[in-house]
């Protein structure tokens, strides 16, 4: 029997972990990462070396779990923020983006689309973000009606909090247009962006601070329904070089990363 709660993971193609190795019986949804945004055409593209992996992704993971649904994730942490901002600011470029996402999702056999714009940086970009989501939902419904196929799922990877460094997400638009959002409740601390050690993905903190719990509460208090809120956590950890080996608890001074890591993201039950 297919499950209704979201148990999902992001997957990036790698020779070390091909799609055939995914135990899809553990998941309800799997995100294939990442499609890129072409800043000139405002259409999404898939790198040539990834095309065969992306084309076969759905059929591959459904061999072990016919119920699992797949989504194509667009963007990612290394994507060009300015390209997303430029695309979302113009009706014509939004249309090019939206049309290309629907076309590729259908041709590659995905059940949905995931926007991973990290992150809209000011009020104007958040307003354009809302408009993009609204037009995207309308286009998905129109395509579904014209083809007689179930509408594509629409999701987004978002900041762990509804307040991104003083810039508020358009929570009403998010709630009205997306099937759910994946809260990126991780990388609170890490070598390269924090000078001291700390819990990279704390569910709760005994004192005030960033945590999955605080992020979920902020999104729900801002108006996002609880059943559209999916808490994200990482499959990986971080290691620092300590400035003083004898100072090795939270808030211990560091001098940089101890090892190099490849990150793999996941989301868990909503």
From TrEMBL:
<protein>
    <recommendedName>
        <fullName>GH18 domain-containing protein</fullName>
    </recommendedName>
</protein>
<feature type="domain" description="GH18">
    <location>
        <begin position="5"/>
        <end position="270"/>
    </location>
</feature>
<dbReference type="InterPro" id="IPR017853">
    <property type="entry name" value="GH"/>
</dbReference>
<dbReference type="GO" id="GO:0005975">
    <property type="term" value="P:carbohydrate metabolic process"/>
</dbReference>
<dbReference type="GO" id="GO:0004568">
    <property type="term" value="F:chitinase activity"/>
</dbReference>
<dbReference type="Pfam" id="PF00704">
    <property type="entry name" value="Glyco_hydro_18"/>
</dbReference>
<dbReference type="InterPro" id="IPR011583">
    <property type="entry name" value="Chitinase_II/V-like_cat"/>
</dbReference>
<dbReference type="InterPro" id="IPR050314">
    <property type="entry name" value="Glycosyl_Hydrlase_18"/>
</dbReference>
<dbReference type="GO" id="GO:0005576">
    <property type="term" value="C:extracellular region"/>
</dbReference>
<dbReference type="GO" id="GO:0006032">
    <property type="term" value="P:chitin catabolic process"/>
</dbReference>
<dbReference type="GO" id="GO:0008061">
    <property type="term" value="F:chitin binding"/>
</dbReference>
<dbReference type="InterPro" id="IPR001223">
    <property type="entry name" value="Glyco_hydro18_cat"/>
</dbReference>
């Amino acid at each position: 029997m297919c499950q209704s709660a979201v148990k999902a993971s992001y997957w990036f193609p790698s020779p070390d972990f091909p799609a055939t190795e995914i135990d899809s019986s553990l998941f309800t949804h799997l995100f294939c990462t990442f499609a890129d945004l072409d800043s000139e055409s405002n259409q999404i593209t898939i790198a040539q070396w990834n095309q065969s992996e992306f084309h076969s992704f759905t059929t591959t993971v459904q061999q072990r779990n016919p119920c699992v649904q797949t989504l194509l994730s667009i963007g990612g942490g290394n994507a060009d923020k300015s390209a997303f901002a430029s695309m979302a600011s113009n009706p014509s470029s939004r249309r090019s983006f939206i049309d290309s996402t629907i076309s590729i999702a259908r041709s590659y056999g995905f059940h949905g689309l995931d926007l991973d714009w990290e992150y809209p940086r000011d009020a104007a970009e958040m307003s354009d973000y809302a408009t993009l989501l609204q037009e995207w939902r309308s286009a998905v419904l129109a395509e579904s009606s014209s083809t007689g196929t179930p509408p594509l799922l629409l999701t987004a990877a978002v900041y762990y909090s509804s307040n991104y460094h003083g810039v508020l997400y358009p929570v009403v638009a998010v709630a009205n247009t997306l099937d759910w959002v994946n809260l990126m409740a991780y990388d609170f601390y890490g070598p390269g962006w924090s000078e001291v050690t700390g819990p990279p993905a704390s569910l709760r903190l005994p004192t005030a601070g960033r945590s999955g719990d605080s992020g979920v509460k902020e999104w729900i208090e801002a108006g996002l329904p609880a059943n559209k809120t999916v808490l994200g956590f990482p499959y990986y950890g971080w290691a620092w070089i300590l400035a003083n080996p004898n100072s090795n608890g939270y808030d211990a001074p560091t001098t940089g990363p101890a090892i190099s890591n490849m990150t793999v993201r996941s989301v868990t039950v909503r």
